[in-house]
Amino acid sequence: MSSSTPKPTTLAAIKNAPLLGLAEGNAQFSNYQLAAVVLGVPWLVKSMLPLVNRGGFKTYIFMLLLTGVPATIAYWALMSNYGARKNSKVQLPGKDIETYITIKDPELKKLYAGKNKIPMQVFHDAYFDGKIDFNGDVLDILEQRHDWTTFNFTPELFRYVFMNFIPEVIVHSQSQDEEQVRDHYDRGDDFYEWQVVLAFCSILLTRLRFLGPRMVYTSGIVLSPDTFESLETLQDNKLAVVCNKLDLKPTDRLLDVGCGWGTLVAYAAKNFGCDATGVTLGKNQAKFGTKRIADNGVPADRARILCCDYREIPHGVGIYDKIVSLEMAEHVGVRRYSAFLAQMYELLADDGLFVFQVAGLRQGWQFEDLVWGLFMNKYVFPGADASASLAWVVNKLEQANFEIKSIDVLGVHYSATLWRWYLNWLSNKDKVVEKYGEKWFRTWAFFLAWSTIASRQGTASVFQITMHKNLNAYHRMLGAYNHAGIHVKLDKEPELIL
User: Which position among 43, 145, 340, 378 has the lowest Cβ density within 10 Å, counted as fewest Cβ atoms?
Assistant: First the structure.
């Protein structure tokens, strides 16, 4: 297959993109150009204005402070509006936007019609408010988004960045975390637990829920790309993989930081006999998890859920033999990331293992990635500002004196998981609307659909990292027994090279 010709797939495990869904977006941006603009504009202004042009270096610095932010905004706006697509290997059909969406709001209809595309931020805000509708399935229309929407930075996006996002990144207080997490995760458990029967291939009936009976709000793992594995199977695969990487034993003390509804805590204690402790800020989650442990016949003195902030975990050197944290560190925030990792280092035994799964973004971003990230921060995961590139995460881990044993990039597995959540969500529309309203239904349908695409195409990803302390005395060879990446299955015995 030629590398210059994108080809759609037909794999049963994922929502396969149509050809138009493989189109690349605008990625034209240069830090050097931005620096030139930010540094050059105040020099030009100083040179051209009367009186000011007589000033020296201090005057230049004053003008730099005065024009720096406006110049940055202008450059971002220009590049996001008029920058070129990364490539044009997939040709856009150029249809009128009315082919894809129906604008009901008169003012918006005046602005966006025909070939005049609508900015994604303007679109999704109007869609949530019922001012615009999709002409078909949300996910199917979003697959064709490059033909009817743009990903330029709008005034509203700039306002959100400067008035909300940046201040929250800087502050990221414990009270802020508690408010945001409990508002999100202490929404009624039925919000996440809707039941549905889904027909697949007209012959397979699978009983699913939004998160499924496992109640796991992190990426599952696909083991068979050619098979539609159920949501439960994907999550069971992930639980088994994580516990195998942890090399759990009955004598181990396990800590699950950000344990959610306690599924991994109960699973590990029940199947491996270890002593397991889960930590969550969600009160409903702690209550649910405690009951789940009891329902699985695990004694309370062998497994427990603590409802507290991660900063309140009892301190001690080497208290836990194994630590796991699945997609919780994003909520820690950039500011406190290093302190969090230092705390985990202290809690982990010198011969212990740490499985760290974190959602992140690609380093070679497109403007769609940034618009998607800001949407997620505003509407779905407020405060989760530590979603970064793999390079940034690994750098932070190594700075904390951890040594990486293995890394698995699970972005497309998250796409498979999100797709199943999306199908469940749509199937329970009437129940969701009745209890939470039309706007909540629309917001989460849009989130699940766009995120299915984002994690499939590389915008977002999930990094599952296995590590241990970087100590001379650590017995690294013992880790070879369960180092899955070096244990390969060969279709046939290879011939020796003479």
Answer: 43
Residue 111 within a domain: no
pLDDT for 207 equals 30
Does the residue 472 lie in any domain?
yes
Assigned token pair, 342: 């230092």
- Distance, in Å, from the CA atom of 137 to the CA atom of 146, rounded to the nearest integer, reads 16
How far, CA to CA in Å, does 102 sit from each of 115, 435, 442? 14, 26, 15
Dihedral (C-alpha) 323, 324, 330, 334: value to the nearest 10 degrees? 20
> How far is the CA of 191 from the CAs of 212, 235, 376, in angstroms?
11, 19, 18
Between 75 and 384, name the one with better pLDDT.
75
Structural contact between residues 126 and 100, judged by C-beta atoms closer than 8 angstroms: no
Contacts of 456 (CB under 8 A, 6+ apart): 14, 15, 17, 411, 412, 415
Tell me the β-bridge partners of 196.
208
Q: Does 154 fall in a domain?
A: no
Report residue 175 as tokens: 């009270």
Q: What is the pLDDT of residue 429?
A: 92
Asked if residue 324 lies in contact with residue 354, where contact means CB atoms within 8 angstroms, the answer is: yes
Cα separation, 327 vs 416, whole angstroms: 16
Percent of the chain with pLDDT over 90: 79
Domain assignment present for 498:
no
Domain count, the chain: 1
Q: pTM higher than 0.85 for the full model?
A: yes
Dihedral Cα 282, 284, 286, 289, nearest 10 deg: -130
At what angle are helices 429-436 and 438-457 packed, to 10 degrees? Answer: 130
Domain that holds residue 482: 191-486
141 vs 332, higher pLDDT:
141
CA distance linking residue 498 with residue 488, whole number of Å: 23
pLDDT exceeds 90 at position 59: yes
Residue 471 CB-half CA count within 13 A: 12
Percent share of the chain, pLDDT over 70: 91
- Position 384 scores a pLDDT of 67
Token pair listed for 94: 């150029």
Q: Is the pLDDT of residue 198 over 50?
A: no
Q: How far out from the chain centre does Cα 29 lie? A: 23
Residue-wise over 357-379: b if at least 16 C-beta within 10 A, else e? Answer: bbbbbeeebbbbbbbbbbbbbbe
Q: 247: phi > 0 → left, psi -120 to 50 → alpha, else beta; which?
A: left
